[in-house]
Amino acid sequence: MQGVGFRPLMYQRATRWQLTGCVRNQGGGAWIEIEGTAEALDAFLAQLVEQPPLRARIDHVDVRLIPEQGSTRFVIEPSADVRGDQPIVSPDLAMCDACRGELFCPRDRRHDYALLSCTQCGPRFTITRAVPYDRANTSLTEFPLCAECQREYEDPTNRWHHAQGISCPKCGPQLHLYASMADAITTAASALAAGQIVALKSLGGYQLACDASNAEAVSRLRSLKQRDAKPLAIMVSDLETARRLTHISAAEERLLSSPAAPIVLLRQRAEHPLASSIAPRNRDLGIMLAYTPLHAALLHAARLEALVMTSGNAGDEPIVCDDQQAIERLGGMSDWIVMHNRPIVMRCDDSVVRVVDESVLPLRRARGFVPAPIDLPLTCRQPILALGGQLKSTFALGAERQAFVSHHLGDLDHLESFAAFSETIDHYQRLLRIDPCLFVHDMHPDYASTTYARQRVPAESRLAVQHHHAHLASCLAEHGLNEPVIGVIFDGSGYGPDGSIWGGEFLIGDYTSYRRAAHLNNVPLLGGEQAIRQPWRCALAHLRHAAIDWIPDWPEVSHSSLSAARKLLAGRFQAPLTSSVGRLFDAIAALVQLRTAVQFEGQAALELEWLADDTPEGVEPYPFELCASQSPMQIDTRPLIAAVVHDLRAGVSPRQIAQRFHGTVIAMVVDVCVVLREQTDMNTVALSGGVFMNVLVLSGVTARLRERGFRVLRHECVPPNDGGLSLGQLAIAAAWQNRDN
Ligand code: ZN
Ligand code: ZN
Ligand code: FE
Question: How far is the CA of 490 from the centre of ligand 3 (A)?
Fold first, then answer.
């Protein structure tokens, strides 16, 4: 991969072994010619494989003998642009230790220079206009090197040798404050310390920051950003601070301090000095380490334990990455704006991950991970564009055996998000030189991504894929598997080919086809989309389905909306049927009076998970029934609802009910998988869909299935939610292209 200091390192090693020849970037990789003694050649090659450069990812090494060139020294040659080679672009990399050392060393000429980046760190994807990765192809091209930087750049013994991102306070991009001549770092730092809000230009866009222990500042930021409920991420300067605030495992520490430096969700300590409004009702805290010198310098100068660090945008709009827009849109949300003149070529949000049972669970895949390719278990005969879903949108470009899944693009409901979606596709196509012939989209006729496909290409170049089939394929594809499996897809909602809304599915299939083997029984979604925002509607539907007249006391729900919803129950109008597990979670959350309305999809389910907190061994699941005589097999939830109501009326605590409910969902998965294994002889289960972001369910299901001898596949590379759809669509389309073979 380019942009990871590969060429300078090869130079060092070749000269050490007294080899002559050259190295250059070529297509998506590097081309090395070496000439010397057999012993030195072998040693060089062995080292390449055994000790690859720290940040590099070596997919394969291809060794060929060429005629003797008679070269007398080793040189780094200009990049060769070979048509036909798949370009690869490195993700952005978090600040390295050497750069941190220079930043904080008073004698260093880059002391306090908050925009330094070397061969091992700094922006890549977000400043790259074209490949190969050379300074001229990045937004640093506007900053010619000063004499001293030029000397370092050419000196093979210097760590800045051939660093495309080299710069210094004299010749590099400069920080400044909007509408002020004051020093950016010191002014912003004291503003933060005084409880003010600062907007700052980070790698992939602007961020809004404030002191995380200042409750007033946090609530002001929330109201200015119109963000009422969603947790805010915080940034700290080192692992020690993160350890003081949260409980961290070794795997979580590795993730936090990895070059991708994502936001990691960690369990909060019982007592810490941060404002509770950062993550209301939440047992977890989203933490990242300072990943640019600017962040590190600010935290250091402000002498604060932690900063709230959230994307610079209002509501669900795309993150601001343009300076003029920052002034217009963030000016009203912040007291100061820290800007610099290194343009952001492509916006990119922070990534969010968590660790479950020692393995990574991606929740939002963006900075630090994109646009690194994911290997496909099958070949795209012609380039493919997969457009994903509607919420938590991503798209994926496929060429040969590689999938380039885009960064998280948010919900496409907004006109602006849709415009950004379309622009981002153009950018990826240009950058990766993939010109798709086949467009894959969800079956849902009204998704903005479906509309996009319809607008761009005629019907014969489009392929519609069922939502949960794509979830299944996504999980298979990231594991490099190409064989039929049992797919457990527990989700919010997805368009079903029978006109109902699916979301509690057991599918048997692979990329070419699938069969709906079992699903949760259907209940009406009262008021359609409204039911997603008002979980009490889900509860009412489930109560009625179980023939229970009783309802809990919901003070927030008016009599008129209740009776209107009851009327909907009578007819089918505005009440499509759904088998969604996400909505079942909503129903239970409303039944235990946790929440009757939500501000974002999945909020009630998330709070139900926190309420349960744990599923202690031996907790007894609620009853449910498998109707194996039907095809597809139905999971009858009526006994479950009746038992929950019984518990509620008997005064059982909401927490216990939440725990038993989680245990029930786990039992459902295991029981159905056991039946399906008997029917099909299949032993591999793929878990996908948004519900598998629930740690209790994910972890419990995995453990119980493994106890029963199943092989369990879960998401470790793309999110189980709709952010992973595009990868699955892509794999299905590739299989479709190969259907005649
Ligand atoms: Zn560095
Ligand atoms: Zn310089
Ligand atoms: Fe989905």
Answer: 8
